[in-house]
Structure formats: structure tokens, C-alpha cells
Amino acid sequence: MKATRLTMICHGLTLAQKRGYFPEPEEPLVSVPRRCVPHGTFQILTAPEQRAQQTALALGDATIASGLADCNMGRWQGLALKRVQAEQPSALADWLENPASEVHGGESFQALCHRMSVWLKDFELPGEWFAVTHPMVMRAVLVQVLGCPMVAAQRIDVLPLSRIELSFSGQWRLRINCPQNASL
């Protein structure tokens, strides 16, 4: 059985991230990353949102994978976090503390975790893969791979262009890599 290696990459910086807003579905990047094609033979997947597709262009030709779509934030899309905190403090607290919360009218974190669990289960494609997606999606994937409580996702910061490396050979595993020629 040939192993699968999947590197998940967070999209580049958006104005919404910079200003503390919940993103709009078609939120563009502040600046498109410079082209950086990794070595070797690999395939690229991207979430359907514009910010993910713009980031994926830096790697090469990508196939849109709807399963990598961002969490739907419902009525909070495009709103400043400070505004939601001021106008709906109990709703925001509920959303932060309860993974099943749908107070914004969109997708709960619990539903996103389930969606990513199904996506990972169905991802049986051997070889080297890159997948450009979103911070919430990457948190949900880490929750699934590590088998930790969903509330632990609130303690994971996923910065623009950050990566997580996973491998699959019977089960998904987190790969923590050391840079080549690294020394302490």
C-alpha cells in the first residue's frame, strides 16, 4: 500500500483577517503569494473560495475540492468580531464555548468537524498532495486526526500560509517535520 502525504496550507492574508472580520465567501487576498512550486511530483487541491484559489495559484494548477470549503458563518459573514461581541455577546460566547452552536445561522464547528471527518475518510488517493484551505477547516482536521475534544480547536492559531502535514497508511497521522540541515 502506497502512503498518502497531505500538506494542508492555509490561504494567504485577507483584509478580513487583518481587520478582525468574519470573512465573506469571495474575500480576496491582500496580496497574492509569489510562485513557489515544491519539488517532486504532487497534486494540488483547493477550496472553492477566491482566497484559497488565489493562494493555490502560487503552487500551480489546482483542482477545486468542495469538501475543503470554509465554515459557513451565516449572518456573521462580513461582520467585525468586535461588532458581534458588542451586539451579541451571549451568542458569541455560546459559539466559542459550544461546538454544536449555530447561533449565527450557519454551519456549527461540530458539523464542520463531521464534514472533515468524512472528507478524510474518503480521501484514499496515494501520493503527494497539497490542499489549500481555511483556518477553521485546518482546526477541524487537527481535531479529527488527533482525536481531541472539539473545544480544543479554540486553542489552535492557524496563521496565513501556515501548513500542517499529514500522512495516511491505515490511519491519519500528524507529521512534524524538521527543516533540512537544521541544527539546535
Automatic annotation (TrEMBL):
<protein>
    <submittedName>
        <fullName>Histidine phosphatase family protein</fullName>
    </submittedName>
</protein>
<dbReference type="Pfam" id="PF00300">
    <property type="entry name" value="His_Phos_1"/>
</dbReference>
<dbReference type="InterPro" id="IPR013078">
    <property type="entry name" value="His_Pase_superF_clade-1"/>
</dbReference>
<dbReference type="InterPro" id="IPR029033">
    <property type="entry name" value="His_PPase_superfam"/>
</dbReference>
